[in-house]
Amino acid sequence: MAMTLKYSNEDDRAYGLAGMTISLAALDAIDRIVCISLDSDGPMIDFSHDYYFSISPVVSPKAVWDNLLRNYHITASMVVSNILARSLVRLGEEVPKDVMDAAYREIETEGMESCGLEEDEVKMLYDKILHQNRRIFLNPRLRPAIAELAHIISRRRRMSGVELREQLNYLQL
Predict the structure, then answer these.
(1) For 31, which of 23, 45, 58, 172 is 20 to 30 Å away at the CA?
(2) Burial of 98: CB neighbours in 10 Å, binned 0-12, 13-18, 19+
(3) What is the DSSP annotation of 60-111?
(4) Closest listed residue to residue 78, CA positions, set 23, 143, 147
């Protein structure tokens, strides 16, 4: 997705990264993380080969499509969770409508271009993603653990996927 999420400071960046990793855990995709890095100039999450699109003559078109759609869902959820963690948890306020509208437009474009989805299909998936992530980031029981994960990421700077999974388990996320 081409959208750039501008961070106001390092704390904001850590909350965004924490949000993305929590969404991966919620989607049972946390095992796709090789490592995270708060200091990365590029993507802050390095994924395993399972995340990236690959075409092989031995893989059925349906399997390729399913993988493409799953990765689109993961990416869209990471965008939404990044925004929600930074606003709902870090700042304690609702996300401005124009920010969510911009995120939706990017998610819609990506879904139509990379997956060939129709507008109504994208809207249905987006609404599901938004609902699931709002339940996580508005949960008063989880908010302190989300904040603690952001602080751990800020202190550690870089964590392997295994270390991150251990932290998520420890924090009961």
Answers:
(1) 58
(2) exposed
(3) -HHHHHHHHHHHHHHHHHHHHHHHHIIIIIII-SPPPHHHHHHHHHHHHHHH
(4) 23
The label of the residue with tokens 């796709």 reads 32
In a domain, 136, yes or no: yes
List the structure tokens of 66: 């399913």
Q: Residue 136: enclosing H or E segment and its boundaries?
A: helix 119-137
**Partners of 28 in the β-ladder:** none
Domain assignment present for 166 = yes
Structural domains in the chain (count): 1
pLDDT at 130: 97
Residue with tokens 């075409």: 55
We report the CATH number of the domain holding residue 32 as 1.20.58.760
User: Which residues form the domain of 34?
Assistant: 10-170
4, part of any domain: no
pTM for this model (two decimals): 0.90
**Domain for residue 1, yes or no?**
no
Q: Is the pLDDT of residue 133 over 50?
A: yes
